[in-house]
Each structure stands twice: as C-alpha cells, then as structure tokens.
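User: Could you go from structure to sequence for me? I need the amino acid at each position, not a summary. Structure tokens:
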C-alpha cells in the first residue's frame, strides 16, 4: 500500500494556514443549493486559462526549464509529453507553486500567481502515487481538502458526494484505501482534486503506476470526465503517447527543457513539424527524400525517395531541397488504391503477428520501412520482393535536421 508523501508537495509552514494534500487550492466561495445530475457536473467546475510567459526554472544553476511561452485555454485538455528529464513535470510543478521560476510569470486566468502559495491558486492535483491517507475512509480522503479550507460543513457532504459520483466511486465511500484496487484509488485521488472545485486540474503521470488493463480503463474514465466537465482546464503530464493522443485537445512535446512541437492533437500526429515530434508521437517511417517539383495548388509536392518518385503533402518547398518523407506504418497497405497512391518496392525482412495487428518490416533500398496491417493476410516468404502503397494525403514532408 502506498502511503501519502505530503512533505514532497506541501508549501512551507509559514505560507500555509493548514495541512495540505495534493488538492492544492479551492474556490473558497461555496455555491449554495443542491445540484444533481449531468448539469451539476457541468456547473460544478469552471476552468481558467494557464499562461507561461518566458518561464524558466533552474536548480543550483542547472537550467531544467528554458524560457517557456505556452498558453492553455480555459476548458482545454493539454498534454505535456516528452522523455524523462525533458522538463514537463517541472513545468507542471511551477504552475502548482511547488517550484519557483528563476524568471518569467505564470498566470491563471488574468491573475499573476507566480508569487502566490499553492493553496491560493485554485488548483486540484493528482499524481502517480495517489497519496491517500490509509487511516481515512474514501469520503474522508475526498473531504480533507475541503476541511482544510474550512468550507461550511453543510456543503462538504454535498461536494464529496458529487465528486465521487463524477468518478463513479459513490458506492465505495465507506471503504479504506487498502480495500480498493489501484485504479479505484486513483479515482478517489481525482475525486479529492475535483471536490475543491478547481479552476485547473493538474495530473502528473497519474496512470503510470497501474497495470496495462487498468490503465486503459482509466484512460476511458478520464476521457469521460473531460466530456462531462467541458469547462475544466486540464494540464496532463505523461510519457505515454497513447494517453496523450486519446485524451488531449492539444499536445506540447518537450525536449531538453523546451517545447519541441505544439499543436492540435490530430494535426501534430499527421503533420509533425520535425523529426523528434514524428518519432516520439507514435511510430513513423522517415525516408530521406529530395524535392523534384514544388507543391501544386492542392498542396502536393513530388519527391524522390531513392529510385522512386512519389507525392506527399507539403507547404512551399523548392526543388532540390532535402526533406524527410513521413508516413505512419498504419497508413501503408499492400493493396493498391486510387490513382494518387504511391508505390515502393522492398524486400520482406520480418513478420510479427500480434493478434489484432500484424507488423511487417521491409528493406526499401537500404531503408528500413515498417507496415502495420489490421487484418491478417497471406504474406510471401521473407526475402521476397513486394510492393507497399500509401496515399499522398497520408504522407508529409518535414525538415531533415541533418541538412537544415
């Protein structure tokens, strides 16, 4: 059983009037009247935007977050993703008030919160290790932040019940954390964060401690939560690309303390702006290419990949410029499609059947190409020559940093 580690997150004793849990803030004004049903869920929480204005963070002279300009709109679900040490958790902790920026300002809505203690920022937070009090029942854990903020007793039960209802844990209100599964404990931690009616919900790798099956279920629950609370602003830190793709309205990919790519989720996935974004946000085939003809009025350029001439979606680019042709493995097929389909020929190197998906690898003129098939079909023997096809709409050109 994981026990709370509040010291890691708590502000200093001088700044906090009462003990603090991971629910680091509260809209102190309690709304009157009882609310039930879906409308109550929508009205329960109102989101605010979050703005980083040239925010940097350094530890003992070591810069871990370079000047960051980023805005999360009110009601938006933004995922910060990146490898370990990229600065994503540091950025979240700066919003929470657990890290003091070396420079820059942080705003929540129109309020500059850079110098405010965590409990005055109107936030809710849940992290990887749940941090539930083992000696408290579920309803007591959820109520803890409300009591710390001295919310009127007559409203605490209402808010606790509403928060538990939102996460589907009403029937477990009387249980202790040890009597719950990992996924249920995480739901309670999220309910505690929601009970304080935050303007912004911060989630720091909340699912990474769960096994794969429970994690998938929790992703679905978080997606439902986002639908039911469309006005809640969420900043979600994760290293799991599938979580980000499923949940986020927008994604910011971090690398070496700064944002490497940022945009709407589908746009960033289908049209990555650089190699790092293409490779980190899902698998991608990146084939060295040289532009043969500039983009047409429809935004399609002709490029040469080895001895093959193919078409790809592109912005303005001059003939002779080197680019990387980016095609996702699942967008390649063994069946020829319409006339705008491109064809590459390669040597089959391996086949890996994984139940729902079949992964095949080919050698196309010394370039490794991967294809993911959703339906099992008869394939030739390894070492055989075969064609693969893809649409120009599913291919894009990105800068080749080696030749920038």
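Assistant: Here is the amino acid at each position, in order:
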């Amino acid at each position: 059983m994981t026990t709370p580690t509040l010291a890691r997150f708590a502000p200093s004793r001088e700044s906090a009037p009462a003990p603090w849990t991971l629910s680091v803030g509260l809209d102190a004004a309690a709304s009157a009247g009882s609310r039930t049903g879906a409308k109550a869920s929508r009205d329960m929480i109102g989101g605010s935007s979050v703005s980083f204005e040239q925010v940097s963070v350094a530890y003992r002279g070591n810069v871990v977050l370079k000047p960051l300009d980023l805005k999360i709109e009110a009601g938006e679900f933004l995922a910060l993703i990146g490898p370990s040490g990229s600065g994503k958790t540091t950025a979240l902790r700066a919003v929470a008030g657990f890290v003091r920026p070396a420079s820059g300002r942080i705003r929540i809505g129109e309020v500059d919160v850079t110098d405010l203690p965590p409990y005055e920022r109107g936030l809710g937070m849940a992290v990887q290790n749940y941090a539930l009090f083992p000696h408290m029942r579920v309803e007591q854990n959820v109520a803890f932040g409300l009591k710390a903020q001295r919310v009127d007793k007559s409203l605490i039960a209402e808010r606790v019940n509403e928060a538990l209802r939102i996460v589907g844990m009403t029937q477990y209100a009387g249980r202790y954390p040890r009597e719950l599964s990992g996924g249920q404990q995480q739901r309670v931690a999220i309910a505690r964060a929601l009970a304080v009616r935050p303007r912004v919900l911060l989630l720091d790798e909340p699912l990474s401690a769960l096994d794969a099956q429970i994690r998938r279920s929790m992703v679905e629950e978080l997606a439902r939560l986002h639908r039911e609370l469309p006005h809640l602003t969420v900043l979600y830190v994760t290293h799991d690309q599938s979580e980000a793709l499923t949940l986020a309205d927008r994604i910011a990919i971090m690398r070496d303390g700064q944002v490497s790519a940022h945009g709407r989720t589908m746009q960033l996935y289908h049209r990555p702006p650089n190699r790092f974004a293409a490779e980190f946000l899902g698998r991608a085939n990146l084939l060295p290419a040289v532009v043969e003809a500039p983009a047409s009025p429809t935004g399609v350029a002709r490029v040469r990949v080895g001895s093959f001439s193919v078409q790809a979606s592109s912005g303005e680019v001059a003939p002779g410029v080197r680019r990387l042709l980016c095609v996702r493995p699942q967008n390649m097929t063994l069946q020829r499609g319409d006339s705008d389909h491109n064809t590459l020929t390669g040597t089959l190197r391996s086949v890996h059947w994984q139940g729902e998906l079949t992964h095949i690898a080919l050698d196309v003129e010394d370039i490794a190409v991967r294809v993911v098939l959703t339906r099992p079909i008869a394939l030739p023997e390894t070492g055989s020559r075969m064609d693969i096809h893809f649409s120009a709409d599913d291919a894009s050109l990105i800068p080749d940093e080696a030749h920038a």
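One structural detail worth keeping in mind: The first strand starts at residue 50 and ends at 59.
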